Amino acid sequence: MLKRQLIMEKASELFAEKGFEATSIQQITDHCGISKGAFYLSFKSKDELVVALIDHFMMQMISTIDHIVRNTPDDRLLYEFYYAIYHTFQKHSDFAKILIKEQAHTFNNELMVKMSYYDKVMENLILSMIERLYGDEAKQIKYDLIYCIKGFMNTYSQLFIFYNVPIDLDTLAKSLAEKTNLIAKHAGIPFITKDLAFMFNQPKNEEVTKEAIVEMIKQKIEEMEDSIEKESLILLKRELLEPSLSRAIVKGLIENLQSHSHCQWISYLLRKQFQF
After folding, report:
1. What percent helix, strand, coil does the chain show, rounded to 5?
2. Per the database entry, where does the chain bind DNA (predicted)?
3. Is residue 20 packed enough to be buried (19+ CB in 10 Å), middle (13-18) or exposed (0-12)?
């Protein structure tokens, strides 16, 4: 076994038992039967080791789910998706347990960024699955459905993480596939709009760029029927690219968007961009 792999396997055992913070490098090296010098040849720090373990765990899961979404027939897709998720949790329950606990109170910025990245990758895979399975039928509800599926994933994973009881994966996957279908086909009041989903996906403490706003406006123009709001968006997009209008006119165009439910987030971003 390669030394790096040995360290990751033995450290994972200790992290599951003690937690990330409570486990020292000395304890890891003792558990591996190696020197600290050998540890530092593989990892610069304990934080780097933690991130490597998360990468390994999440890359395996993401790769498996991506393959399932791309290759599984529609009538089996939801079942195979849920089965794979919980099979992974069952197989790696010790590490999954400590990972979830640590996320709740971590101050490791790199860890938070890493988990946020994998969360967005998973969201994109789920969205792809929803659009493939339901198409226009779930057009209004698909962003809510992403959060419903993620809620199922997180909540039911606690059965593996906090309760030492045998779980019938086949029945669980069938049950959650049925629930997801019911929501997708019968839910009628969406809460998470496309604009709200975009807002949630913005990096924390970072401004949305002018280029990103222009792309949002382009998409919105394509979706909307002719209206004052659509004309306002066209003029505002032009103003972002080639400024020529007075501030009073720009302010009035932005105000035209405020009352339109699907343009409120764009109007907020434009107010910040033009500093109103």
Report:
1. 75, 0, 25
2. 24-43
3. buried
What's the half-sphere exposure (Cβ side, CA atoms, 13 Å) at 94? 13
Sole residue written with tokens 């394509």: 222
Using CA atoms, how far apart are residues 170 and 86, in angstroms rounded to an integer?
10
Tens digits of per-residue pLDDT, 150-183?
999 988 887 776 776 788 999 999 999 999 999 9
Handedness of CA 18, 21, 22, 27 (dihedral sign): positive
CB 84 within 8 A of CB 65: yes
Task: Find out whether 146 and 127 touch, Cβ atoms under 8 Å.
Answer: yes
User: Could you say which of 3.60.20.10, 3.40.50.970, 3.20.20.100, 1.10.10.60 is the CATH number of the domain covering 1-43?
Assistant: 1.10.10.60
What ranges do the domains of the chain cover?
Answer: 1-43, 50-186, 198-274
